[in-house]
Amino acid sequence: MYVGIDVGTSMVKAAAFDAGGRALAVESRPVRLDIHGGHVEQDMEELYGAVVDALGTLTAALPEPVELAGLTGQGDGVWLVDAEGRPVRPAISWMDGRAHEFVDAWLASGVFESVFRRSGSAMFPGCPGPVLAWLDRHEPAALDAATTALYCKDMVFQRLTGVRATDVSDASMPFLDPRTRAYSSDVLAELGLAHRERLLAPVSDPVATGELPSGVRIANGPYDLPACALGAGVTEPGDGLLIIGTCLASLVATDTLDLDGEPGGLHISTDRPGHWLRAMPAMVGTAALDWVLTLTGTDLAEVDSLLDAVEPGAGGVGVLPYFAPSGERAPFVDPALRAELTGVSLESTAADLIRATCEGIAYAARHCLEAAGLTGTLAVCGGGTRSPAWMRLFADVLGRPLRIVEGEVGARGAVLASAARHGVPLDVAAWTSPTTVLTPDPARAAYYTKGYETHLTRLSSARARHGS
Fold first, then answer.
1. pTM score, whole prediction
2. Where is the signal peptide (predicted)?
């Protein structure tokens, strides 16, 4: 019996699996985001309480003792805690936009590109570099009071086990040198944060281990994107993963570290030295569709029928789906970018707008996957996979077969990482087999190839209008 814990942005989940990787039970708890004026924060005590409650309820109902647990969670943001792991202030989420002034200045001065050349990470407002710089200027007392600036799962791990640590995947953004697998003092200095280096948690390489209060062994990490890659079986160079969730994340496994290209996305270090995930975690995702559904008064359950009712092209309506208050971070960084609707008339329907949004998100995914260097198979997971019509649309827009991997993929990957760390043999192929494989329709794929070119043209125009 194995348990994976996935501490997401809006939901905490604890999932139990048998030795063959079959999901036995899942406990979920919603967690709130406090969104105000471009600031996005979370209550750490509420989130940690949700973890404890979900984990306790799950394990109490299991027919057998748990042998091993793994932990993963949302990346980026800043989670300031004291020596006991207690919050100094509310966590600043990866979705937060307050630090855009620093990203803008670093883009203009060349610091942004210099940091990318050292770390392989293209910073965005919600990543720790800019957020810590903002706190250092505007809330220095909070940093002075803190012992550690953690990532989400690291905060939970410290509270559960007493161990203060992070891993190479979380540390990849933006302070880790992917060649040495250690913090870069040069990056800290360039960001004006050398005097705050004490706040960075020790990088445990391989991932840190500990014990839950119940005595069950647990390992910390990797964070949710690489955990999903493990859970979907994406480990061979060239193979990719698309996570259709709050964040639209595209990842491609690689054994080549190339920091000379256009700065964008990040290179996530993994537990295997010499192996990285070229990641393009776009801010656009299911949150964009949720906003449009709310605007049009449409229930999520209606999406499939509405997508089937409208032909490709959405009656001429087009959507650039960049709704995040912090702009976009992959495959380019543009804090000022915002969503645009085109081709709308009095004859346009809610179904047109919904289909155009779904198409726009799929175009953004294609943009990211191409930039990440996808050449092999493509696995897909996340909440978006629950819509069969949207998955068919994705297959057509991407023009390639999709290995749909359903269930708690991040929690599954957390267990696999923990098993590898503790030397527990599991059948990885069985744990990561796809639920189904979806192939594109050739005619629609050809249509969407032209639509993708139009999307890129509109995007270029939108960015040019404000000098990006």
1. 0.90
2. none
